[in-house]
Amino acid sequence: MSEALTLSELLGERLTNREQAEVESSGLGSDGRLLALYFGCSWSPPCRQLTAALADFYGRFKQGEHGDKLEVVFVSSDEELKPWLDFVSQMPWLALPFPDKERKVKLWSKYKVTNIPSLIFIEGSTGKIISRNGQLIIRDDPDGSEFPWGPKSFGEVMAGSLSKNNGQTVDSSALEGSYVGVYFSAHWCPPCRSLTRVLVETYRKIKESGQKFEIVFVSADRSEDSFKQYFSEMPWVAVPYTDEARRSRVNRLYGIQGIPTLIILDQEGKIITRQGRPAVLNDIDCIEFPWHPKPVLELIESNAMQLNEGPCLVLFVDSEEEELEPAKQLIQPIAEKILSEHKAKDEDPPLLFFVAGEDDMTESLRDFTNLPESAPLLTILDISRRAKYVKDVEEITPAIVEEFVKAFLKEKLKPEPI
């Protein structure tokens, strides 16, 4: 696949500028060039604030030595043309044309955008994500001196002293050779406090079993006093609250979109899973530590939030427990194939895979998505796009699952609205 084709698939062949003149997108895809995808809308005060800050950054960057190596593309969620035109007229960069709403939705889905404003830096030649936290880049590097903001290792970003809650410090090199949980949390967040209580027991059990496991708390507290109060409950280490630059770099490294988030790293500092929260909550006895991702998950309350993160294949079966395991085995081959292919490219998989029995939560999901009551029922749900794809047949085989997934990935399925 050529670079120009990759970019035209992402953005379409033509973009528009503030004067509504067309600009060819293919020229933006040369090697070494980055694109910043700015997801926002005219009616949001935070978007207007980011537009002003980004315009300042963009103006300075264009005057610098790498000025020709970055372009911004606005991806709007505006529903009305006039506010969009007024907003785009204030922008010195490019925008997706207003009528191209389907492509906007695809970009939201591809880059797993969950809120606005969102600023995502990607490679122009491949579409690969450089940073999900572009707002932090323009705040922390206002002159663009760290361009091209490529990903650094965990060890590089974490380097320095770490705090203990007794006032002592240790060097980050003490983490070497251990599994590490990077814990983004804050005292003001009730789900964070609930997870912390469970995580303290999890940490104790794993340490008592003799395994090398450490946790690093990266605070999103709003004051140092709140941080100290919260950290006093934690038996692990933290990035010092006063080291705001390092906390920001760690947030940038992992593209943190919300809290609580627990990322589990292997002994070399590579990501095992970003889903540490449901992993811990579903494994109170720590039997599955360090929680390597399972190709197929049983849909339960603690992992249901993942349905909002992108397209998910869900195979609905009867409620009996003995139905769930055969259902997992049915979709396991294609799930493993998709997972391994994208892991080799260091990419997130384009689909998550679930089996669902019959319980209150599943019934609520069926009602919300207006699915038929039949079982088995093979579906792909893309809740962020409010789209569903349904394969309602009497017998579901591995071949049917694979054909369904391949057709979805090639965009050959027609979505139904949720």
Care to describe what's here?
Residues 151-305 form the Thioredoxin domain. The chain is α/β, with parallel strands linked by helices and 418 residues long. It folds into three domains: 7-140, Glutaredoxin (3-Layer(aba) Sandwich), CATH 3.40.30.10; 154-282, Glutaredoxin (3-Layer(aba) Sandwich); 297-417, Glutaredoxin, CATH 3.40.30. The chain is built from 13 helices and 20 strands. The chain has helices spanning 3-11, 45-63, 81-88, 101-110, 134-140, 154-158, 190-208, 224-231, 244-254, 276-281, 321-344, 360-369, 398-409; strands spanning 14-16, 22-24, 34-40, 70-76, 94-95, 118-123, 129-131, 161-163, 169-171, 179-185, 213-219, 237-238, 261-265, 271-273, 297-298, 312-316, 352-356, 377-382, 387-391, 416-417. The strands form five sheets. The protein has a six-stranded mixed beta sheet with strand order 15-17-16-18-19-20, with helices on one face. It has a five-stranded mixed beta sheet with strand order 5-4-3-6-7, with helices on both faces. Helix 5 runs antiparallel to helix 9. The longest helix has 24 residues, at 321-344.
